[in-house]
Amino acid sequence: MSSKIRIALIGYGYWGPNYARALNELPNSSVAVICDSQPERLARAASRFPQIPVCADVQEVLRRNDVDAAVISTPASTHYHLARLALESGRHLIVEKPLALEVDHCEALGELAEKMGRVLMVAHTFLYNPGIQKLRQCVASDRFGRVYYLHSTRTNLGPIRPDVNAIWDLAPHDISIFNYLLDQQPLWASAIGSQALGNAREDVGFITLGYANNVIGNIHVSWADPNKVREVVVVGSRRRVVFDDLNDLERVRVFEKGVSVGEMDAGSFGEFKLLVRDGDIISPKIEFSEPLKNQVTDFVAAISRKRKPVSDVLTGTHVVQTLKAIDASIRERGKAVEVARCKVASQSS
Predict the structure, then answer these.
(1) pLDDT digits (tens, 9 = 90+) for 289-301
(2) Model pTM score
(3) Which CATH number fits domain 143-289+320-338: 3.90.640.10, 3.40.710.10, 3.30.360.10, 3.40.50.300?
């Protein structure tokens, strides 16, 4: 391996140009080749990055001897096949979320990466967002108290994906964030979806996730809402914290307000006293850094230092397992489905 880690970019769609820029800006990595099956995308890549070779054939990329790793930034339905080819060729790998559309496929990729001694990262980019990292610090602090519940909203008008529904497109962000904040995966999932736009797939979803200690997480995703929202809220016994990805001035706000349970009130038929705390609203300082660049920096460091990245294959597998439980619940009109046992047929089959 050369002093720089040479990375192939497979897929030059929405995220492709951002990956190419971020990887080329790192001092210890470079983009060796850009691959896409669509000629117009390759033309755009060649125009923007004239120094980087382009090609339309993945097999040609994997036959090159100047490629140490790859980024797969293609439609979700292609992830498993392309990731398997890349790992079998001995390359380290970033795969865009979701890792695959089946839990078995995620597990197989994890086993293959371990067998080949290669880093396999899943691009849950919000785990590298300084605002989400600040949120995690706040929730982990003793001053936050006990976590009561979380809720998130991720809405916009599209973009509508051709191979997955809005839940598989948008909810992986929030599932990965919830799991990261709580350091666990959900026990069960309940969800309902709507095909409001008349498509064959759900474009609106309302999801409830049940975690240990009676913690509830609620997620609303939509391709059909003209009000763009990117918000995560965590409510605890002593504080409430809000992450608003669209607010550049106050990305995180901490409300030093909360309600907790005190001693049982005599003569109140077994009811406890509720202790209400009131305090300031604080906007903590957050040092800006680009989440995507933080992610690829972690990937390159994981390769160089032979360690797991923050968003590793297990992180990606847990998200897909939760998505499968959500699919099953939607088919049962909101019935709670146990996440750990959920290995059902893909929504795309």
Answers:
(1) 999 999 999 999 9
(2) 0.92
(3) 3.30.360.10
